[in-house]
Each structure stands twice: as structure tokens, then as C-alpha cells.
Amino acid sequence: MECPDREYYPFLVVLFLTLLALVIFWPVLDMVVLSASLAVVLMPVHHRLMRSVPAVVSAAALTIALFTLVAAAAYCTDLVLRQNAGLINQIFGTIGTWLANPATQPGAFGVSISKDTLLFWVAKGNALFVNYWATITANILLIVFKGLVFFLSFFLFLLRGIALRDRIFRHLPVQVRSYCELLTPVTVDTLYVIYIVQFAIAALTFVISLPVFYLLGYGNILFYSFLAAFCELIPILGSSVAFIIVGAYSLALGDLRGLLIMVILGYIVVSALPEIYIRPVLVGRRVKINPVIMFVGLIGGLLTLGLAGFVLGPLIIVLVMKSYRIWTDERKGSKEPQDAGDDGEAGQ
């Protein structure tokens, strides 16, 4: 007897092999995922440019523009960090000296983490914000390779993304293809709102950090606010990193007032509240998902998938919820004609 769902076998095999490839090559494919998501967001701009220039010229122009924007942001960040190198060295030096001092004991402040672990984190922060050129040089081949993969993938997704999507859809089973077509609009909406909210939260962090660091009284208000916004813009860091660093600096100086300001106003108000409430609400409202579920997707994606989880976490949650709604709507639709038929038979 022939199985009625035999057409699904090749699709399931290809799906399994694709997932296997994603797992094996994930250290590189995270750049492909990010480039694809960004290409989807900028696709309308690409289509508008194609009215005046060929597709390859439009895709190349957007890729060059994106590279220029990233390079300019990197240059500005390097400039700010170099101009404040003395202050950053002072911060990490003070924290390191305080931790290395036998007279200081983190446990006295309720910190249950060992000194060795804290010193390791300080070394990581020093490598990221002070000796970042040494860190970049040590990983230059990986950075260049990932950069090439990202920008080349971005260019190709702009140029051939629609054709690739249509080709994939054409070979899908009919029922699967109909589901994918229904999920496409919500996928695009989700990607739009993820990127827009990310930049909006970073800008908000900079603005509301200004009065917090003014109250702190250490000066360099613009730099500290920039540091918080910069960390917020990088999903795997978050503005909490900046407030933890400055809070640890306050503790090392013996400034308990400054530590309380960093914990209450910095960590809780500026860093935690936007992540727990504002971001999930903004993203969830656009795609009609409960903010709590969206928050789980955001945090879970970052913790399990790294940088790409910033996009994939919320997107997976949205697609699962949307798929469930489509399935329940189809179930209701299939029951209604059956119920109407039963009523007709009963009337006869």
C-alpha cells in the first residue's frame, strides 16, 4: 500500500541535512543568518534603486554603503576609546588592584564569586575595552573571514534572495508551501521591528544614562553614556556590562553611594527595564505576541545561539506562535462545515 505522504520524504531528508549543516558550520553560518536578516530589511530599498539602476549595481551600492557605515562606526568607537584610554586604564587598574589586595574580600559585600573568577572577568573587560587592538590582531584571520562571509552573503541575498526563495518554495510540498507563504509576511515584520527596536533602545540608553552619570559625579558623562549605548548596541553585551564595570569601580573606590546609583538607577532602571519591558512590548505589539514570551525568546536566543540569537530567538518564537494560530484556524475552519452538515442531517 503506497503511503499518501510519500512526497514529504525528500523534503524531510533535505530538511534534516540542512539542520545538520547548520549545526556543523554554525561558527561561520551565524554571519550568513545575520546578513540574510539584514538583506530582508533592506530589500525594499534595493527594489526602489532597481527602478533606476541594474540589480547588481543596486546590490553592490547597498553592500558598499553598509561596509562604509560599519567602518565609520568602528573608527568612531576606536577614536572615543583612544581619547579616553587613560580613564579606562584607571577604571580597570583600580578594580584589579582592589581584587588583588588580600585585605579585600568580595564575600563581605555579598559577592559569592571567587576572586579568581572576578579577576578573569576583569581581564576579559580589559581585553575588550583597553587592549582591544591586541585582541583584534590575535583573531584577525577569523574576523576577516567572518567579515567576508557577512558582506558577500549580504550582497548575494540582495541580488538573488527573491529568486532563491521562489525556487525553494517551488520544490516544497503544497501544504508546506502554503504554510511558508503565510509565514513570510510575519517574518519580514519581525525582522524589521527587531532592528528598529535595537537601535531605538541604544539611543534611549544613551539619553537616559546622561542624568544617571551626572548624579554619579565622576565627570566624563558623555563617555560613560556612550559606553552604555555602545554595549547596548551589541546584543551579546548589553548596557548592563557598562553599569557593572562602573559599579565595580565605585566599589573599588569605596564609594557606596556611587555603587547604589549604578545598581538602582543604572542596572535596574536604565539597563534592565528596557530589556524586560520596553523591548518585548515593542516587538510583541507589532507581531501580536505576549511580551513575556517575546522576552524569553530574546534572552534564550542570545544565551543559546550567541549573536545570531538576537535575530533567531524572537523570530523562532514568532514563527511558532504564528504556526500554531494558522493550525488552530484551519482546524476551526474544517470543523464548521462538518458541524453545518450534521445540523442539516438532523433537520431532515
From TrEMBL:
InterPro entries: AI-2E-like (IPR002549). One of its GO terms (cellular component) is membrane. The keyword Kinase does not apply. The chain crosses the membrane at residues 12-43, 55-75, 132-159, 192-215, 221-246, 258-278, 298-321. Keywords: Membrane, Transmembrane, Transmembrane helix. It is found in: Membrane. Belongs to the autoinducer-2 exporter (AI-2E) (TC 2.A.86) family. It holds the Pfam family AI-2E_transport. This is Permease. It comes from Methanoregula boonei (strain DSM 21154 / JCM 14090 / 6A8). It is a multi-pass membrane protein. It comes from the Archaea.
